[in-house]
Amino acid sequence: MTASLKAGLVGLGSMGRHHARVLAGLDGVELVAVVDPMGDKNGWAQGVPVLSTVEELIALGIDYAVVACPTALHEEVGLKLAEAGICALIEKPVADTVEGARRLVEAFESRGLVAGVGHIERCNPALLSLRTRLAAGELGEVFQVVTRRQGPFPHRIADVGVVKDLATHDIDLTGWVTGQSYVSIAAHTVHKSGRAHEDMVSAVGQLSDGTMVNHLVNWLSPLKERFTSVTGERGTYIADTLTADLTFHSNAAVATEWEALQAFRGVSEGDMIRYAIPKREPLQVEHELFRDAVRGEDRDICTLRDGLRTVEVAAAVLESARTGMTIQTRDSAAHGA
Asked: Which parts of the sequence belong to the Gfo/Idh/MocA-like oxidoreductase N-terminal domain (predicted)?
C-alpha cells in the first residue's frame, strides 16, 4: 500500500477552511498542520496544529502544501516552499502580478516540482462535460464564448479587484474548454463601491482560432450567476456552474415551406437537451488530481504556466481599461489543449 503523503495548508480563511475539510478526509493524505498567524478562531483546522509561520510547516517534512493565503502573499509563500523542495497547490490567481507568477513558474519548474493552481472551474462537472464535447467536435466550428459571473461583494477580498479575483476564473475556463489562447482583449471597468479596486468589468476578446469572447463580471449584483455559453455551427451549449448543469440548444434541421421564414438567413430553434452528469464536489476532484500528480501519476492539473497565462490576460484586461486600447496578449500560440 502506498504511504500517505504529508500535506500542509497555508491560510484558514474562507477558502482555506474548505481546503482543510477536504484535506482532512482525503484518502492517501495526512493533513499534518495549518499555518495562519491569526490562529484558528473559527475551529476550521480539523484538529491539527495551527502554526504561525511557513518555516514551521516546512520543518515538519511535508510532501506538499496548499497555499490559500491572500493573493499578495502567494509569491512569497510559494518561493519558500519551492526552495525547500515542497510541491504546492496555489489558489488562484497564482500571483497578483505577472512578474510574480513568472518567478513562481521558474522556481518550481527549475526544481522539477509538481505545482498547480486552484482554478476550480476546471473540476466543475458541467465544464468537464462541455470540454469533452467540444474536443470531440460535437459543436462543429466554435463562434463565440460568453461568460457572466456576478453576485454580491465578497467581504473576504481586500487585496485585489474583480478582475483578478473573479474574472481569472472565466479567462482560465475559456482557454481550457476551447483549447485556445487569447490573442487580444478590450475592456472597461467601473468603481462603484468606494474601494481602491474595480468592482465591475466588461471585456471583449478574440482567441487564437478567431473565436469571439465576451466576459461580464461584477460583485455589485444581488443575483448570483455563473453562466458560460459556447455557440457554434451546430448550436449552443449553456453551462451553469452553480448547479453544474449543462444544456444544449441545437440548430433545427427541419425544412419549412413558409416563405417568410425561408428568407430569414439565420438559424431556427431546435431540440434542447439537458445532460445527466455525475456531480462530485469540484474541490474534492481538484485535490484528488493534485494528490495523484504529486505521486507521479499523469493528471490534468492546472499548471503554474497555465496560471501565468491567465494572470497575463488579466493584466491585459486592466491595461485595456486604463488606456482605452485593445491589448494584444503575449504567448498567444502556447495555450494548447
From this structure: 6-119
Share of the chain above pLDDT 90, in %: 85
| Residue 332 pLDDT | 39
| pLDDT tens per residue across span 73-101 | 999 999 999 999 999 999 999 999 999 99
Which helix (H) or strand (E) covers residue 109, if one does?
A: helix 98-109
Nearest one of 230, 217, 219, 216 to 176, comparing CA atoms: 230
Contact 163, 314 (CB under 8 A): yes
Contact 54, 69 (CB under 8 A): no
CATH architecture type of domain 5-120+284-302 = 3-Layer(aba) Sandwich (3.40)
Domain boundaries, the chain: 5-120+284-302, 122-280+310-328
* Average pLDDT for 121-128: 97
User: Which phi and psi angles does 271 have, rounded to 5°?
Assistant: -70, 155
* 146 φψ region: left (φ > 0), alpha (ψ -120 to 50), beta (else): beta
- The identity of residue 176, as a single letter, is W
Q: b or e along 212-230 (b: 16 or more beta carbons within 10 Å of the residue's beta carbon)? A: ebbbbbbbeeeeeebbbbb
Beta strands 115-118 and 87-91 are parallel
Q: How confident is the model at residue 260 (pLDDT cuts 50, 70, 90)?
A: low
Say if residue 211's pLDDT is above 50: yes
Q: Span 313-330, mean pLDDT?
A: 95
CA nearest neighbour of 121 among 133, 111, 130: 130
* Set of cell numbers at residue 121: 472551474
Instruction: Please provide the CATH number assigned to the domain covering 122-280+310-328.
Output: 3.30.360.10
CA-CA distance, 161 to 141, in Å (whole number)?
34
C-alpha closest to that of 186 among 311, 313, 326: 326
Strand, helix or coil for residue 331: coil
pTM of the complete model beyond 0.85: yes
Q: Tell me the C-alpha to C-alpha distance, in Å, between residue 50 and each of 20, 28, 32, 46, 99.
A: 11, 21, 9, 10, 31
